[in-house]
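Because showing beats explaining, we let one protein speak, sequence and backbone structure tokens together, and leave readers to judge.
___
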Amino acid sequence: MDQSQTQDSISSQRLRLLIVDDDKVTRDLLKEIFERKNYLVSHAGSAEEALRILKREEFALILSDIRMLEVNGLQFLAQLKKMGSRSIVILMTGFGTMEGAVEAIQQGAFDYISKPFKLNELKAVLGRAAKHWETMSLPAMQSMPTVPFSTKTLIGKSPQIVEVYKTLARAAMATSNVLINGESGTGKELVARATHDNSPRRQKPFVAVNCGALAENLLESELFGHVKGSFTGAVANKAGLFEEANGGTIFLDEIGDITPALQVKLLRVLQEGEFKPVGTNEVRKADVRVIAATHCNLETAVRENRFREDLYYRLKVISIDLPPLRERMGDLPELVNHFVSRFSEQSSKKISHISEEAMTLLLHYAWPGNIRELEHAIERAVAMTRTTILYPEDFPTEISSFQPDSLSEATAPLSTSDSHPLIEGNVPRTSLEEVERVHILKVLEDTNWNKSKAASLLGIDRKTLSRKAQRYDIPLTRKKAT
């Protein structure tokens, strides 16, 4: 049975779903969507209302927004935990952050979703939660012990990076080794540091070493230490990085570059927690969590006998896959603003913003060097500009001379003539925000652009309708035929 059949089988059992969101349009849309998937759906306009409902009724699943007035989604989750609720909770947010994901997972959320999300993705998450409800013996909601958040954070709220946040959150609270995969410049060390800084080991050392930057004998000495006279230049005993990291975390960057001989010694450390400094048979022990990273395909290296299979699986207990920047371009404006702010402060310049032409250029450039290349490009632009605005000519030549293609039709907004995706039910790439836009347009058309009547049918006031119209670029008067 494939995944879709499994989900349909689960939803056919009419599981009870509670939707908690202070936006009535969103509540109504989600209710319509999941009633069509055969869930028994109720909804609440606030966490307080939801708690009152939950005192008298039980729900298998709860889908709750985070940003709500009075009691937010995380506070709601904490209240559910105190109640001993058995419900599986999925949190939604339009402001996806690493801190939010870590706290949500630590507090016991089943999943954490960043808006705007694709409807099929949301349905898949609900399907997984439903399957979990049906197949698991559910204890009262539990949470992991929380730790203070690191001030060093990842940036972005695209679905791709939010998936990284969620995996990172679960990895941080575990004790297993972690393997981070990603192209050069995607931020592997930042993910490793965030995993350590949000873990119970955060008070102990975080030690990083670039395995590809040192020759085999130097790397072995660096990792395991050496005794005086063990090789030319060893004028004194030296502790290795595994000893320095005792109780904490060691980050082995570019792990795919180590030699077969060193792979054997590293495997012993992972299996037994033991190592021998260079030049001695003395066995030493260290309690160290290993986070490794690579830009190469280790599975291919294993098949080609360039990397030990047993070491690969020892490292890859938990795997975090970092997307390249070109696959998360929705995060680029936020990254640009972050780097502009940082380098403006460092150079004592007051850069007000980046020009529209420059931003368009950055959004269409391929970024082979990923976030590191973007960071250096912004640093260069801030250093070179003679104004308070960054223009295309301020950027490196390979970027400023780049000729972006025209926007694809796929990025064009939905028109008023688009069919209602809730009725059709077969628009795989439609996000909830796009559905809401089409829904509002349809109501406006049905009411002949009578704003009061449309707002009433939508269950919102005219001020909220105007705000949503501005957000989605919806005309509030019917366009005259030409």
Notes: The domain at 326-400 is CATH 1.10.8.60 (Helicase, Ruva Protein; domain 3). Residues 22 and 45 are 4 Å apart (CA to CA).
